[in-house]
């Protein structure tokens, strides 16, 4: 499946960007005999990982990108997924026809283990975690990596040849792949996101679609039948398509029929797995995640019994519709991972109780008009914060949300939301925005919200 590790001996490779994945891939390639140089634009004082790499004999250049970093002697540039393609070293490499990849490509070339890779605008972490739990419950050897836990290049050397690598992958990671070929690949959904990086929606979709580009008829492509974009992507997918759908019956894959999650393969007897309303995770979007995870795990050889047991017991991942606590009859939920409007729409639809919404964050020029129907029908109060707070407040006013306040940050927003709510209500942090205007990550934002709730 993958090339020999011997292909790296004597290769001159630039690793652009430290962080977790950069450190991991630099160490791995160096161990395999490559001549590796690491470059990060941050000053040395902000690169604590540099010393460890230098002790291994790997040169590290901090504080900018030297003009002579990329020359004709360079065989490959491995960049941190978040580094945009317009930065000078990447442009110089591309102009010299030097391949530019992410560590996902390196991991795939090295391992002989089968890979199940999951991408999508929303739901990746929940679905990936579900697949890992299902495989473990079913006695199928598996390891989760990628955007969850360790980088792929941190684990590939440890994997047995019959052990599945279950990988959550972003569009940033997939854009930098060439030969990457998962045995099972899943595209959950595609909504407008990360256009500050991709510039155009077409590039975003192409990057997601690279998940399937090297598959053959022996591989499985799991796609969302209820998504127009996924149906369009399917037209060019070379792998065997397994659909998942909660709206219509599919020929091959997983759907909901008469309230039952059903597994289907042509020429085989359909398997009624479990009633859809027994899935432990709340909300229609989590039912989508459940169906996708069932299809992926089934494609990896997981027994139906283990899939069913996991779906009925798995209650979620931190920062994703995470129940925090109940105070005076008010239930508090942390959905900090909702970094776009579509994710927040799914969260609002998950509750029947009146909602006090906490939303805001990085302003990417989104007008949030798609939230209007749910603001009108589901939200009794809103507390906004951050760069996008004023736009969200405008939408709340337009939707005539009865209770409206603004806050300086998430902690104050949690306190104000608690005062707006009453017994029987839900206070929901579902920001509809990235966190980077005020916080280093959605995880930090979610932890601060939870701390504020626990201090009530």
From TrEMBL:
Domain Mur ligase C-terminal residue range list: 319-433
UniProt entry tagged with the keyword Cytoplasm: yes
UniProt KW keywords: ATP-binding, Cell cycle, Cell division, Cell shape, Cell wall biogenesis/degradation, Cytoplasm, Ligase, Nucleotide-binding, Peptidoglycan synthesis
GO cellular component: cytoplasm
Catalytic EC class: ligase
Catalysis: reaction(s): UDP-N-acetyl-alpha-D-muramoyl-L-alanine + D-glutamate + ATP = UDP-N-acetyl-alpha-D-muramoyl-L-alanyl-D-glutamate + ADP + phosphate + H(+)
Pathway annotation: Cell wall biogenesis; peptidoglycan biosynthesis
Domain Mur ligase central: 118-297
Residues bound to ATP: 120-126
PANTHER family listed in its UniProt record: UDP-N-ACETYLMURAMOYLALANINE--D-GLUTAMATE LIGASE
Role description: Cell wall formation. Catalyzes the addition of glutamate to the nucleotide precursor UDP-N-acetylmuramoyl-L-alanine (UMA).
Family: Belongs to the MurCDEF family.
Protein name: UDP-N-acetylmuramoylalanine--D-glutamate ligase
Gene coding for it: murD
